[in-house]
């Protein structure tokens, strides 16, 4: 597509849009003017209608006043024997109507009712000798009496758009005065009805002329109408009080007026658009196309590096000046690009190259990579950096990062400067740094990593102050020639997190073993989240015996035999389940299975008084666990006192208020609580005694420590303290007769461990019971 065609394609829409917008603007202006003119005419006509209605109402008031204040009505009421008395009032009515044009004389009627609502006078200006009282006129009078008012005005617009005005007053027929409210029920009523024929004719004319809709309205509104696009114009003619006639002019009326204007503007716009387009096309072709084609060719050569810059143009026209500006602009852009290119790849805080520079350098190294070469990455993550920011402020945090960067640079320069090639140190983001190296010996990488760690052995020194900062380092190298940058970064990230898990301020190197562990943990996580996970779970039963080795209780243990991974130990999948929030699903499954079989187990082993169930300590921070536990207990109608829920002492590190509440609620339901694995953490005995519990279980590690001679006295005191607090003491991990005898002597009521019995299936538990004791009633678990 040549330049002329492109300019035509560009110009035509712009010109068309310009003329369309101009036509639209002119149309809007003309439209607004036309609508304003129509509005003004309508408002003038409506004002005249309102004036006519006011004249009719004034006539009603004057006519009533002439009857009441004059002597005609009084004579009519007093001269009851005069058969012509109504003729006098008829002539008075005709005389009063003389103010109207004979051709537009309205229909007028007068109705007078006595206190019993009997008509004593009815007159109308018609020639009908059989005329009757209008039901609406009579209803208007009765409505006045019902409302206990002395006067009212009512207006009716019938289906033929004939407007009738009713004026009603209450009057004392003896005194012709307005009665007091208490006398209205016995007062006379006068109703004057007048058909406003000129108003009705005007309304019908408006309806015909504007194709308008006319209807009666009960609430007076402003005469302002709407005339926006797609909307009608509405006018309200007040009739007095809350009554009005509403006139709605449809939008079709205005569309018809505007149709011709739109046609003229559209034709004019099309002709002007085509003429302008042809003229501009000619001028562009003559004065712009050729010079721009030359400039375009030079720019193309510049972009393809066939020339260093645009040729200098001495022409003084626009294209010549444009060419000179392009030349100057390109020169400045090239200088600015080179400067920004360097800045965009440099971290302003630390002075180290940033992630963009790292990605480019790594790509360059991988482009040179083959099986004879090795690329290594050391991933450094600053530990406790959030603590530094929160405690000392972000300014100190920035100084810490800058000091870390200087330390990295020093270590890299010390160990890599004489090597074949390296990428150096980079700041990826926040507190994350990497060191990139190629063809550097593994020993040198280890030495560099240890050098980095040594910077943080006693905290990081910054401007004479020491801050509690350490780093975790992960190291990974390319394993094969097919290794990619993404794979290498994934490996080193895994190694870095392994260093964090190992206690921080450590180096961890990626290995296949680490990768297998990671993949296994991923597989375990996927399996836990899979729908059929519970189908692979099973229960085992650990005997708990008294001092005479008789079975008194059973601890239910969970086992997982995966179809793909084989046996997965609880200490491998339970912590992972807790970390991904799946512990509640597992706990509730175990509880439900135990509740289902609780009755059968109790019947089979009557000497067993309690069954212990392990639950995650995280459940004690849950807002829903206790309710779910209660729901399961209710569903299976279990004896809650038969079950002991075991939680590890780590629950003491959670939300203490929530923990106390949940423990109390569990005991309140009737379940018993045992503190499991006591001695594995750092929680004191006195702190544990503050929690509502029924038993405490000494962990295997504590058992081993207590078994030493120097700790026996302390252990005895510990057992006595627990028993004084009403806690049953259970020794876990009993593995020898010596330990059994020792803890019997110390006063532990119950024991469990491999010495007494392994975790057993339900069938194996039968054999164990047959071997160790006769099925007989035994003592209670809680003394």
Automatic annotation (TrEMBL):
Chain ranges of the EAL domain: 517-773
Domain of life of the organism encoding this protein: Bacteria
One Pfam family per UniProt: GGDEF
InterPro entries hit by this protein: Biofilm_reg_signaling (IPR052155), EAL_dom (IPR001633), EAL_sf (IPR035919), GGDEF_dom (IPR000160), Nucleotide_cyclase (IPR029787), Rev_trsase/Diguanyl_cyclase (IPR043128)
SMART domains: EAL, GGDEF
Domain GGDEF: 373-512
NCBIfam families for the chain: GGDEF
Name of the protein in its database record: Diguanylate cyclase (GGDEF)-like protein
Organism expressing this protein natively: Pseudoteredinibacter isoporae
């Amino acid at each position: 597509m040549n330049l002329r065609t492109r300019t035509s394609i560009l110009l035509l829409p712009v010109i068309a849009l310009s003329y369309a917008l101009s036509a639209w603007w002119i149309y809007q202006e003309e439209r607004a003017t036309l609508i304003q003119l129509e509005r003004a005419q309508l408002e003038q006509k409506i004002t005249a209608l309102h004036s006519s209605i006011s004249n009719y109402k004034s006539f009603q008031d004057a006519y009533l006043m002439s009857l009441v204040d004059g002597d005609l009505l009084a004579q009519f009421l007093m001269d009851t024997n005069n058969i012509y008395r109504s003729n006098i009032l008829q002539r008075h009515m005709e005389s009063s109507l003389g103010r109207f044009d004979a051709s537009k004389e309205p229909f007028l009627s007068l109705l007078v009712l006595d206190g019993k609502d009997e008509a004593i006078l009815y007159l109308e200006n018609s020639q009908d000798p059989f005329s009757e009282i209008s039901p609406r006129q009579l209803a208007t009078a009765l409505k006045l009496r019902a409302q206990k008012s002395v006067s009212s005005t009512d207006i009716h617009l019938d289906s033929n758009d004939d407007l009738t005005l009713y004026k009603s007053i209450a009057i004392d027929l003896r005194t012709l005065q307005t009665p007091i409210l208490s006398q209205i029920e016995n007062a006379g009523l006068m109703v004057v009805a007048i058909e406003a024929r000129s108003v009705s004719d005007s309304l019908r004319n408006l309806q015909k002329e504007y194709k308008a809709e006319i209807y009666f309205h009960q609430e007076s509104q402003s005469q302002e109408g709407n005339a926006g696009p797609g909307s009608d114009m509405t006018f309200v003619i007040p009739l007095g009080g809350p009554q009005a006639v509403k006139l709605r002019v449809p939008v079709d009326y205005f569309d018809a007026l505007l149709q011709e204007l739109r046609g003229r503007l559209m034709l004019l716009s099309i002709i002007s658009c085509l003429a302008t387009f042809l003229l501009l096309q000619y001028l562009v072709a003559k004065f712009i196309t050729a010079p721009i084609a030359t400039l375009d060719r030079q720019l193309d050569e510049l972009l393809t590096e066939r020339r260093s810059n645009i040729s200098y143009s001495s022409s003084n026209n626009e294209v010549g000046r444009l060419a000179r500006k392009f030349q100057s602009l390109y020169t400045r852009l090239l200088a600015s690009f080179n400067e920004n290119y360097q800045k965009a790849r440099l971290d302003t805080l630390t002075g180290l190259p940033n992630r963009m520079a790292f990605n480019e350098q790594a790509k360059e190294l991988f482009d040179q990579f083959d099986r004879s070469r090795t690329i290594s990455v050391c991933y450094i993550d600053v530990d406790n950096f959030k603590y530094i920011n929160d405690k000392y402020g972000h300014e100190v945090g920035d100084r810490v990062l800058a000091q870390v960067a200087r330390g990295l640079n020093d270590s890299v320069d010390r160990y890599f400067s004489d090597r074949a090639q390296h990428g150096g140190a980079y700041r990826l983001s926040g507190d994350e740094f990497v060191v990139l190296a190629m063809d550097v010996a593994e020993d040198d990488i280890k030495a560099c990593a240890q050098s980095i760690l040594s910077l943080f052995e006693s905290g990081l020194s910054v401007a004479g102050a020491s801050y509690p900062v350490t780093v975790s380092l992960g190291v990974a190298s390319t394993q094969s020639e097919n290794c990619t940058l993404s794979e290498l970064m994934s490996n080193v990230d895994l190694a870095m997190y392994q260093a964090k898990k190992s206690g921080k301020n450590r180096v961890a190197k990626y290995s296949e073993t680490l990768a297998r562990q990671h993949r296994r943990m991923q597989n375990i996580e996927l399996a836990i989240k899979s729908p059929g996970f519970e189908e692979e779970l099973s229960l085992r039963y650990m005997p708990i015996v008294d001092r005479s080795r008789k079975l008194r209780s059973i601890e239910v243990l969970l086992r997982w035999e995966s179809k793909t991974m084989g046996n997965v130990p609880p200490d491998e999948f339970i912590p992972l389940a807790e970390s991904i929030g799946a512990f509640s699903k597992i706990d509730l499954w175990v509880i439900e299975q135990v509740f289902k079989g609780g009755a059968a187990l109790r019947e089979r082993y009557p000497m067993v008084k309690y069954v212990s169930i392990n639950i995650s300590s995280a459940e004690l921070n849950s807002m829903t666990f206790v309710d779910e536990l209660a729901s399961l207990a209710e569903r299976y109608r279990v004896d809650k006192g038969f079950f002991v829920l075991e939680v590890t002492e780590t629950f003491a590190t959670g939300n203490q208020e929530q923990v106390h509440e949940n423990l109390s609620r569990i005991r309140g339901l009737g379940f018993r609580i045992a503190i499991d694995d006591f001695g594995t953490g750092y929680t004191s005995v006195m702190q544990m005694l503050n929690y509502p519990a029924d038993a405490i279980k000494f962990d295997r590690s504590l058992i081993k420590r207590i078994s030493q001679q120097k700790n026996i006295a302390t252990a005895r005191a510990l057992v006595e303290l627990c028993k004084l607090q009403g806690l049953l003491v259970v020794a876990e991990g009993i593995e020898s007769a010596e330990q059994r005898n020792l803890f019997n002597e110390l006063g532990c009521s119950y024991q469990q461990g491999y010495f007494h019995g392994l975790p057993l299936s339900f069938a194996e538990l039968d054999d164990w019971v047959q071997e160790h004791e006769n099925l007989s009633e035994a003592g209670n678990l809680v003394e």
